[in-house]
């Protein structure tokens, strides 16, 4: 891959570099929890000082694995479905889950789409729509005749409540029988982010106003066209402590306020 300057990305678009850095660095470890050669190559092809993001962690790779697992589960029963990746950023999910039959629509802002077109492999089953996910015209490009799965990985926390619920309601109305996967953060982290989470002396993450935990499932199920909402299991990470703590946090009901769950929404 050629080396491309990515220093023009800012704000929420810059978080695409943060998540790429965390995931690709994890994948490059000999004991990495995720296999992502395309992500490693993409990471190396961008001119950007990743050290601005501070310490490394496994959380981003674990989230990617949770989305991959849920996507594969859907494709097991809908092998020729259309997957719509909203605000996909620099994710490389298509190449990790591709079954040689799916169609994939990547929706993101023009600077991100341009980088993806320049640096990532092409496929006649991979398409792009350069626009905000909140502008619903991307739905016109979706063929849902063989099933549709919508993913919103690392997106909703940067939106407000009404924007999230309006988008989910629109998806439910437009794609009956489809599914949507989104991750969320707990309330305490959302509140903390309003003051600015300083990851290093050079980088402060954008505010994350939207939070969502299991006690809000009824609120989401009240939307027309939403049949059910449930929390998906979290993959186990690397290291003894994490392997002990993850099941404890994600399987203990009274600890739900501490979780950053991945959620599956099913439409009528």
Can you give a write-up of this model?
This protein is α/β, with parallel strands linked by helices. It has helices spanning 11-28, 37-44, 59-77, 93-97, 110-119, 161-174, 187-193, 217-221, 240-251; strands at 4-5, 46-47, 82-86, 103-108, 126-130, 148-152, 179-183, 197-198, 204-205, 226-232, 262-267. The strands form three sheets. The chain has a seven-stranded mixed β-sheet. Strand 6 (148-152), helix 6 (161-174) and strand 7 form a beta-alpha-beta unit. Helix 1 packs across helix 2 and helix 1 crosses helix 3.
What topology does this entry show?
Blueprint: E1 4-5, H1 11-28, H2 37-44, E2 46-47, H3 59-77, E3 82-86, H4 93-97, E4 103-108, H5 110-119, E5 126-130, E6 148-152, H6 161-174, E7 179-183, H7 187-193, E8 197-198, E9 204-205, H8 217-221, E10 226-232, H9 240-251, E11 262-267
Parallel strand pairs: 1-2, 3-4, 3-6, 4-5, 6-7
Antiparallel strand pairs: 7-11, 8-9, 10-11
CATH class: Alpha Beta
Residue runs with pLDDT of under 50 for 5 or more positions: none
Distance between termini? 43 Å
The number of distinct helices, counting runs of at least 4 residues, comes to 9
**Number of beta-strand segments:** 11
String of helices and strands = EHHEHEHEHEEHEHEEHEHE
Strand order of the largest sheet: 5-4-3-6-7-11-10
Radius of gyration in whole Å, from Cα?
18 Å
Question: Share of helix among residues?
Answer: 25-40%
Structural class: alpha/beta
Beta-strand content estimate: 15-25%
Q: Mind telling me the CATH superfamily name?
A: Vaccinia Virus protein VP39
Characterize the overall form.
globular
Just name the CATH architecture.
Answer: 3-Layer(aba) Sandwich
**Fold-level CATH name:** Rossmann fold
Keywords: Methyltransferase, Transferase
GO molecular function, one term: methyltransferase activity
Pfam families: LCM
Organism: Mycolicibacterium komossense
């Amino acid at each position: 891959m050629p080396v491309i300057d990515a220093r023009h990305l800012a704000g929420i678009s810059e978080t695409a570099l943060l998540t790429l850095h965390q995931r690709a660095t994890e994948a490059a470890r000999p004991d990495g929890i995720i296999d992502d050669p395309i992500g490693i190559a993409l990471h190396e092809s961008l001119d950007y000082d990743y050290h601005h993001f501070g310490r490394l962690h496994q959380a981003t790779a674990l989230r990617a694995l949770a989305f991959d697992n849920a996507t594969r589960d859907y494709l097991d029963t809908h092998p020729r479905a259309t997957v719509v990746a909203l605000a996909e950023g620099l994710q490389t999910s298509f190449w990790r889950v591709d079954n040689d039959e799916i169609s994939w629509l990547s929706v993101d802002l023009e600077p991100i789409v341009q980088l993806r077109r320049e640096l990532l492999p092409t496929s006649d089953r991979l398409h792009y729509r350069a626009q905000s996910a909140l502008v619903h015209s991307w739905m016109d490009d979706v063929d849902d005749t063989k099933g549709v799965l919508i993913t919103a990985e690392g997106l909703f926390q940067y939106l407000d409540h009404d924007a999230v619920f309006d988008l989910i309601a629109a998806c439910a109305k437009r794609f009956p029988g489809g599914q949507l996967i989104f991750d969320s953060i707990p309330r305490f982290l959302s509140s903390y982010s309003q003051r600015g989470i300083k990851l290093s002396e050079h980088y402060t993450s954008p505010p994350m106003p939207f939070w969502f935990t299991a006690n809000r499932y009824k609120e989401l199920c009240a939307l027309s066209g939403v049949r059910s909402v449930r929390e998906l299991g979290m993959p186990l990470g690397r290291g003894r402590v994490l392997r002990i703590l993850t099941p404890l946090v994600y399987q203990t009901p009274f600890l739900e306020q501490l979780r950053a769950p991945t959620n599956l929404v099913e439409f009528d």
